[in-house]
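Example for tutorial group B:
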């Protein structure tokens, strides 16, 4: 039996990023959040350097979902949901 999925919380900064996404990317983001990150957030790429402690999952060629994980609370905080090439 699989454990309960992680709760997804979206920061204000990520909300602003999401507002700028196309409807297709918003749909893709929702799918990734519910089917991948909420199920196993550790599947993402572990980041290093200034973003050490965060994880990343590719949304498309240019855009990434950047998030942190609070294991004890089974919560994922979505920090960014757009390009890191700005």
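The residue assignment follows.
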């Amino acid at each position: 039996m699989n454990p309960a999925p992680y709760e997804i919380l979206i920061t204000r900064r990520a909300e602003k990023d999401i507002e700028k996404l196309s409807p297709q990317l918003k749909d893709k983001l929702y799918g990734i959040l519910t089917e991948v990150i909420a199920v196993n957030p550790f599947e993402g790429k572990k980041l290093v350097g200034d973003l050490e402690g965060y994880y990343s999952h590719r949304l498309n060629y240019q855009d990434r979902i950047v998030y942190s994980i609070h294991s004890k609370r089974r919560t994922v905080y979505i920090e960014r949901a757009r390009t890191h090439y700005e």
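The first strand starts at residue 7 and ends at 10. Compare this with the pattern of hydrophobic and polar residues in the output above.
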